[in-house]
Amino acid sequence: MASLGIEDVLTKLTVLDRSFLSSVGHLLVPDDVPERGKWWKQRIVYGIALSYWSKYEDPIGDMLGVSVSHYLRNTPLSTQRKKLLTEYVKEVLESSPYSRKQAIVDVLGQHKKESAKREAVEQMSLALEHGKLSDQRWLEISEQALKILDPARYVAEDFFQYNSARKRAARRGFSPDEKRPFFLIDPLDALVKGLARGEMGLVMGPWKRGKSQLALWIAVAYAVQGLRVLFVTLEDSGKIVEDRLDANITGLTMGDLYSRRRTFKQKFEEFRKKIRGNLRVIDATAEPMSVQDFDRAWEENRRDGFPADAVFVDYDDEILPPRNRKERRQEFADVYRELRRLAARRNVILWTLAQTQRSTEHSKIISGGQVAEDISKVRKVTMALGLGKGDWGDGSLFLWVAAHKLDKQDVGCNIMSDLSRSLIYDQEKTRKVAQKRARE
Length: 440
Hints:
Elements: H1 6-16, H2 18-24, H3 40-56, H4 64-74, H5 79-93, H6 101-129, H7 135-149, H8 162-173, H9 176-179, H10 186-191, E1 200-205, H11 211-224, E2 228-233, H12 238-250, H13 254-259, H14 261-274, E3 278-283, E4 289-290, H15 291-303, E5 310-314, E6 319-320, H16 328-346, E7 349-355, E8 383-389, E9 396-404, E10 411-416, H17 427-439
Parallel strand pairs: 1-7, 1-8, 2-3, 2-5, 4-6, 5-7
Antiparallel strand pairs: 8-9, 9-10
Helix pairs in contact: 1-3, 4-5, 6-7, 11-12
């Protein structure tokens, strides 16, 4: 395959890569890709992707096909060019240009800086030639160039400006449900909304209650809804996590995975055909990982064509703190602060797990005050879920929304589980018991 030109890689990154757009989106303009010549397809796609990013603060991704179809209905192009453009869209969506991202960022940044310097010198020379280079004009030209040469880290936007309000309305009005994936736990989804990108969640519960299974359930639910998920296990081995996932998606018990291998393969293939996203597992049980290591792992997977939308870390007690402190609670505070920043920096949904105090083994409601070591963990997350003992008998669990910054909290629901099949939520059992209880 012929090597891709910078215009081609730039176009594909603008369509697919959120972190690329977050870092250099303010520098991009349609003229970065030539309008005529051999790059005409890239220019059309690049312009559509830039417009989408500006409007929704989201890469266009799979919406590219719909947007290009709309473009073709309203733009006169020859039949041959329409065919070539449609084929190019398919090529873009199937591509993985991530390995060249940093090179593109470096080249683009240098090009923009050189252009800014040259344009500033030309404007000053022209103004001086016509006797219009006042001190005020000098400052205006210099400040405009500096926006590109040394972009500010903290840019404020006029909240009451009409264009700002219109932009916010467009962002909120487009596919809001897709931005907050469901848990696929019916009673919980009926109570509260889930998390969006840049937000952090916490699962709390006593020892051996099923915290890891709940995290795996949410991870699979995200993958079913089209998200790319990175699951980092720090306590249970990768083999255990894999077996739990296989049991979860096939409905087989852990023992049946070994004795009914043909059935497993059949059920796994049936599930695989339905899934829209991907899930990768990192076994980090051999040596400790810090939040910085999680960030590095996310970046390495992105370069491999897997820019994760959600990251799960099982669990917080095994995370290496950024510095040693006198008290464990201070180390937890540092870890959670770094996790929250990672979620914001990489624009991902981030979940971690925490143990509760020993006295909570028989508690129905698991609240924030029962978290072990540092109760301030709950204040640092967007949403905290407590996993308590249900009152529907054996196998029942009680999900308690201990905290939620953006929706109801101090609400909960009973669910039925089947941990032999690694199912934290058995939909059919839950439905039957709920109906029975309602009749009583």
